[in-house]
Design a protein that fits this description.
Number of strands: 13
Bound molecules: glutamine
Number of helices: 16
CATH topology of the largest domain: Aspartate Aminotransferase, domain 2
Number of domains: 2
Largest sheet: 7 strands, mixed
Radius of gyration: 21 Å
CATH class of the largest domain: Alpha Beta
Helix content: 40-55%
Order of helices and strands: HEHHHEHEHEHEHEHEHEHHHHEEHEEEH
CATH architecture of the largest domain: 3-Layer(aba) Sandwich
């Protein structure tokens, strides 16, 4: 038998989101693991996609995206953050946030380049960096408040640091970055050529009157940043796999050199539908209140249990500390919760390289009222 080579990611398993969703399905459990809504998107948006498909917009879009959509994206960013991106040369429509992140890393990270990430970290950053020969340096944020000690981050910076990846609001911890975090970041990258990849897919889901601060608010950061966002999270259509990357022209030009060979272009009728729908800012300006109600319903429902609810400033996710209930590892606890109590979650250790176990699990509350009610019922019986 000839020995065929393994892939470059042979040491990586199936993503925790797929694993937990599969376990939920096998056990007929309520799936609060993977972050996707279980309710219908707005019928108005669905009408637009139907319209553009039937009107015959079914061939390739321009490589960088449909201009009508890029114009709406530029308007949205300018209105929210007073930052200007040129629709044609500084915005690229992507097949979701993950593809934008992949392409950004593929475009700029070379062998032996160092990339700083913050853990708990979304699962695609590290494998993508390693696929291109980069080396991940990590700062671990810890329960219960997941604060960043910027002096430690500063110590991770070397001559080889190519990129810093931030995720704001953070999945899974639900933390958002504040003014002082950005001031520290500005001082760290000053006089360096470090790029910033800013994953802001939950930008419109922040709570309790807080403001999402985008990387593009700071000119000295904007000029070196690739800002990634997602329509899946903005309009509750995660299966449409559409998002975008906004970056200065010089970075966008390099990004597109990879993008053209990665996906070339993105679903035409869906881009047109999104553009039409975005013309009314109410379609995204009310998301904070909509999801805050779901967060509060879940928190209220669990308030009499022994779960400790950690702060949730934004995202689809509530973190629960369960150390008063069990001393199992979070992986075992999440499995048992799915199999015995029929509620699927994601263990936090899967967001850390060293599988840091702080007895914390993540629940997705982007679900119908009845789904949340059933999950609360089951969790209250523990
Ligand atoms: N972003 C979603 C989550 O965090 C899932 C994405 C995925 O399954 N790859 O759960």
């Amino acid at each position: 038998m000839i020995q065929l080579p393994l892939s470059k990611l042979s040491n990586v398993g199936t993503s925790i989101f797929s694993q937990m969703t599969q376990l939920a399905n096998e056990n007929e459990a309520i799936n609060l693991s993977q972050g996707f809504p279980d309710f219908m998107p707005d019928p108005e948006l669905l009408n637009y996609s139907d319209h553009f498909i039937k009107k015959g917009f079914n061939q390739y879009a321009p490589m960088g995206g449909m201009i009508s959509l890029k114009e709406e994206i530029a308007k949205k960013i300018e209105c929210a953050h007073q930052a200007v991106y040129h629709p044609d040369t500084e915005i690229t429509v992507t097949a979701g946030g993950t593809q934008a992140i992949f392409t950004a890393i593929a475009s700029f990270v070379k062998r032996d380049d160092e990339v700083i990430i913050f853990e708990p970290a979304y699962d695609c950053y590290e494998p993508t960096v390693e696929l291109f020969g980069g080396i991940v340096k990590r700062f671990e944020m810890k329960a219960p408040d997941y604060e960043i000690d910027w002096n430690s981050v500063r110590n991770l910076v070397t001559d080889k640091t190519r990129m810093i990846i931030i995720n704001n609001p953070n999945n899974p911890a639900g933390k958002i970055l504040k003014e002082n975090d950005f001031r520290e970041l500005v001082s760290i990258v000053k006089d360096t050529s470090i790029l910033i990849l800013s994953d802001e897919v939950y930008e419109n889901i922040v709570f309790d009157g807080r403001q999402h601060i985008s990387i593009c608010k700071y000119p000295e950061l904007k000029e070196r940043s690739l800002l990634v966002a997602s329509f899946g999270k903005l309009f509750q259509v995660t299966g449409w796999k559409t998002g975008y990357c906004a970056a200065p022209e010089n970075l966008t030009a390099e990004f597109r050199k990879v993008h053209q060979f990665n996906v070339f272009s993105v679903n035409t009728p869906i881009q047109l539908a999104l553009a039409e729908y975005m013309k009314n800012p109410d379609h995204y300006n009310n998301l904070n209140a909509f999801f805050q109600e779901k967060r509060d319903f879940l928190r209220q429902g669990l308030s009499s249990t022994s779960f400790e609810m950690l702060d949730c400033e934004g995202t689809y996710f509530q973190a629960l500390k369960y150390d008063k209930i069990s001393d199992q590892s979070d992986i075992d606890f999440a499995r048992e919760l799915t199999i015995t109590h029929k509620v699927a979650s994601v263990p936090f250790s899967s967001f850390y390289k060293n599988k840091r176990n702080e007895h914390v699990i993540r629940l997705c509350f982007a679900k119908k009222q009845e789904t949340l009610e059933k999950a609360i019922d089951n969790l209250c019986k523990i």
